[in-house]
Write a structure and sequence with these properties.
The complex is a heterodimer. Chain A is mainly beta. Chain A is 0% helix and 53% strand. In chain A, strands 2, 5, 6, 10, 11 and 12 form a 6-stranded mixed beta sheet that branches. In chain A, a hairpin with a 5-residue loop joins strand 5 (31-38) and strand 6 (44-50). Chain A is globular. By secondary structure, chain B is mostly beta strands. Helices cover 0% and strands 47% of the residues of chain B. In chain B, strands 2, 4, 5, 6, 9, 10 and 11 form a 7-stranded mixed beta sheet that branches. Chain B has a 4-stranded antiparallel beta sheet with strand order 1-3-8-7, with no helix packed on it. Classes of the chains: A mainly beta, B mainly beta.
Chain lengths: 117, 116
């Protein structure tokens, strides 16, 4: 079975500073990888996902994540954060079962990003 | 496009009481999921439906939890009787199809349950 470890439970950072949220996964088979974000008092929203192709994926609000198969990592980065990026971020993994096959999404424990002015 | 709807948003009950949560997925989404998110943890899948059939309920405590998805649209999750450790946020999500192909799951706002 797959598992996900988010190495930092909380990350405080100043506005306009760069940030990296770390995620490692374990799986013996091919996987798809996701980052979800949960803003205060809101539901989980997809931030970005890696399915195949380029190992670097980007979101519309400046975040990017790089799939590193050898290190089984999918770290999330942003070169300059805003106050509005304050939220909890969840890394998740699902086995690549292909097509219309069943798959179970497994989440990490979450990282709370707090951006200070 | 309307998102995933859930109700109620908040519920407080005493242990041994029963409670039910309702979810209306995005129109046309065949797959529906219920997750339990305990404070400080990531969401954990409880049950997954494809249309009105159960695909996976391996992590559902079946002695007290039940779920149904009649007519393949709305779904209800019930807890009877509730225990203190059931205090959590219950999230409903839906996707166009089974997630094995990498389909995005869309989440509702959740129902926050407190068991006293």
């Amino acid at each position: 079975a797959q598992s996900v470890t988010q190495l930092d439970s909380q990350v405080p950072v100043f506005e306009e500073a760069p940030v990296e949220l770390r995620c490692n996964y374990s799986s013996s088979v091919s996987v798809y990888l996701f980052w979800y974000v949960q803003y205060p008092n809101q539901g989980l929203q997809l931030l970005l996902k890696y399915l195949s192709g380029s190992t670097l994926v980007e979101s519309i609000n400046g975040f990017e994540a790089e799939f590193n198969k050898s290190q089984t990592s999918f770290h999330l980065r942003k070169p300059s954060v805003h106050i509005s990026d304050t939220a909890e971020y969840f890394c998740a993994v699902i086995v690549n079962a292909g097509g219309t096959s069943y798959g179970k999404l497994t989440f990490g424990q979450g990282t709370i990003l707090t951006v200070h002015p | 496009e309307a998102g995933v709807a859930q109700s109620p948003r908040y519920k407080i009950i005493e242990k041994r009481q029963s409670v039910a949560f309702w979810c209306n997925p995005i129109s046309g989404h065949a797959t529906l999921y219920w997750y339990q998110q305990i404070l400080g943890q990531g969401p954990k899948l409880l049950i997954q439906f494809q249309n009105n059939g159960v695909v996976d309920d391996s992590q559902l405590p079946k002695d007290r939890f039940s779920a149904e998805r009649l007519k393949g649209v709305d779904s209800t999750l019930k807890i009877q009787p509730a225990k203190l450790e059931d205090s959590a946020v219950y999230l409903c999500a839906s996707s166009t199809n089974l997630a094995g192909g990498g389909e995005t799951q869309y989440f509702g706002p959740g129902t926050r349950l407190l068991v006293l």
